[in-house]
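Subject: Protein entry, chain in single-letter code together with its fold tokens

Category: Structural biology, sequence-to-fold work with a learned token vocabulary.

Notation: Tokens come from a learned vocabulary of local backbone shapes, not from coordinates.

Start of record: The labelled sequence and token lines come straight after this line.
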Amino acid sequence: MEPNIISKKLLKRLPVYLNYLKTLPETCENVSAAAMARDLGMGDVQVRKDLAKVSHTGRRRTGRSRIQLIRDIEAFLDFAAEAGTIVVGTGKLGQALLDYSGFENPGLNMMAGFDICPPAEQTSTGKPIYPMNRLETFCRHYDVHIGIIAVPAQSAQAICDALVACGVQAIWNFAPVHLKVPEHVVIQNENLAVSLTSLRLQLRSKN
């Protein structure tokens, strides 16, 4: 089954499974869908169905090979192909995203940052930071696929529109505002304040 005809919900669950599998100890050779569902707080049937769509290995009693399952999920998600990625807004959050080494594992190539007033020429790890007037040329030349927005809410839509105009196909938005994009552009909104509030409310409900 090709990734472009599977559900968005499955595409969101697969990285969760992948991260779980990679955090298991090396001594764990096999893993069952039941164990994964239990540890992740998910439904057993759902996990079994999801794994069956991306991997055809495994036995009923012994479970699936952890290493092979990692390979199957990564292959399905096409992690071998690097996706050129940039960050617009290079304050503390933007630079932290640029410098985060964990993005290399899922095939994200964090290439550069852009800012109206660049705070520096590069981040602490050497990622370049350019002024906004170089955005389009850079995106076109390096075939940038993903744009990360880490600017104030009032500037976010204009930045989003600029990224779309530059050919960016997916946007990860950290600005606390809902952005409008064309149908062909994929967008993921991350509101840190909302997420933290939700966590706080869940904590309070347990007391």
Q: What stands out?
A: The beta strands are 30-31, 64-65, 83-88, 108-115, 129-131, 146-149, 170-173, 186-189.
